[in-house]
Each structure stands twice: as structure tokens, then as C-alpha cells.
Amino acid sequence: xxxxxxxxSKKTKKNKSAKNKGKKQAQQNPLISDNSQVTITxxxxxxxxxxxxxxxxxxxxxxxxxxxxxxxxxxxAEKILGKAKVIEHALEQLxxxxxxxxxxxxxxxxxxxxxxxxxxxxxxxxxxxxAEFAEKPQVKLGKYQQVVKQAKxxxxxxxxxxxxxxxxxxxxxxxxxxxxxxxxxxxxxSPQQQKDFTLQQIFAALxxxxxxxxxxxxVEQETKQELRKLKTNLKQLNLSLEDYLKKRQLQPxxxxxxxxxxxxxxxxxxxxxxEIAVEQKITVTKKELQDKIKALTxxxxxxxxxxxxxxxxxxxxxxxxxxxxxxxxxx
Length: 331
What we know:
Layout: H1 2-28, E1 32-33, E2 36-42, H2 44-59, H3 74-81, H4 83-105, E3 115-120, E4 127-133, H5 144-175, H6 191-210, E5 214-215, H7 216-236, H8 241-248, H9 252-279, H10 286-296, H11 309-329
Parallel strand pairs: 1-5
Antiparallel strand pairs: 2-4, 3-4
Helix pairs in contact: 2-3, 2-4, 5-6, 6-9, 7-9, 9-11
């Protein structure tokens, strides 16, 4: 019996060692990286003052028997509200400037709103809050030009093979049918469709080779946005999310994972293309932007100056992406 126990112990240790090794390897080059973070410290005296101000303000809205509206003493209001509620309101005033000061001091450049996690919020002492956020990932392009050339070649070969297989399948089925039943051969994809097919192979190869690690918070944010878009699209089709999941035989968790994987790939490609633009010094001129606007609104061309910041951002991104893709296609 003792022998078996010892043998089992060794086996368990071996399994644990293998698991730890696997975790270590995954951590060396993860597709989703940890969020960046800073610790915000608010001096006790400043925190106490903010707490008292918040309590005084909240007390004017508290109702209590025996007191006129707006005349409830702070100490009674505190008992009714609870300290946690008052602290929450005090933080609303303290955190925005304290967060900005903390990221400036740490030389951080957040891409998302912070996720705030309280560490210590004790009255009479310094308050500490951890702020997590996503930053731009590190993108090492390496020999990306070679990757693009190879992927383009393979993509075009795959397209030719696919078209040939479709034609052969059509001929095979046509042989066994009468003239009346015979269908016309499948339409050949347009030049733009063929280009799009090959571009997808190029994008997939860039993502697979470069593998930039995207911060968890950014992936979560994009996934939620994708879920909102899906719900909007389903609503237009008079279809609920529950019905959609039933039709696809999917669990909610599986759908979230699917959307997260899609969001991750899209973000990886976005940062790769942005890095290529920096490396190749690809920029957008005002004339190019105006030409794009004119092409999209030929009847009544809009002026760049009259566009909202969101519209300007959209056009800049759109034209820049077109130029980057054009550069990659010509490699």
C-alpha cells in the first residue's frame, strides 16, 4: 500500500509540474495581456475633508422623522446613509484629478476608462485605490513584408484551387441532369471579391506571425460592444438573443467566447496596421480626406470643417487604412 501511495504522489507531482510548465509557457507569449495599473493614494486629511463635504451635501436630501427637509444633522444622516455611501460620493470628487495625476506621474497612456478597485478606504487614514486600464500593446513587426508576400501568393493559389473545385463540382452534377435541370455555372467572383479573399489570408498571416498581446480590459470592452451590435441587428430582424442562441445551439458563454475571439483578432490587426503606418510613415492629407468625403457625398459634398469629431475620426481611420492596405497589396 505504501508503494502505491508513493507512486501516486510522484504522479501527482509530475502532473502539477506539467501544468505549471504549460502555464509558464502560456504566460511567455499570451494573446491577452494583463491590464496596466496605478495605485492612487489620497492623503488622510484630504480624504476626511472630502468625506465631510460629501456628508454635508447628502444630508440636505435625507429625510428623517422629527427634522424638516434639508435640516437633518450630519451625524444622523451618516447613520441613515451608511459610511460606504458617503465614501462613494467623496470619491466621485477626489478620483478624477487624483487618477490623472497618478497616470501622469507613472507616464501611462490609457486607451480605456479605468476599472477602479478599492484597496484601503479607512476614515482617518490614507485612502488607496487601484486603477486598471488598457494601454497600446507592443507590436514587433519583424519580417512582416515577407509574411505578406507569402500570404498573398498562398491566398491567390487557394482562390484558384477553390474556383477550380467549384467548376469541377458543377460539371459533375451537370452530367447527371437533363438539359432542363442543368444550372448555369457559379458566377466568378469579381476582382474586388478576389482581392478581399486574398487580403483576408494576408491579415490572418500577420496576426498569426506577429501575435501582439492585447490588454484584457480592451478585449472585454470590444466584446461588450460587439454584443450590443448583435442585439441591435437581431432586434431589426425581430429576433431575440435567446432565439438566436437556440437556432445556433449555443450557450451564452460560448457566444461571449466567440465574440471575444473575433474582437481580439480585430484589435490585433488594428494595432499591426497602425504600427506599419508608423514604420512606413504613411499619413493622410487634408485633400485625401476631402476627396473621400466628396466620393461618398457626391450630390452635396460635406466640408471637413463641418464634420463632427466622430465623423472626422471615422474618415481619417478609413482613408489611412485604405492607404496601408494599398501599400501591403503592392509588396
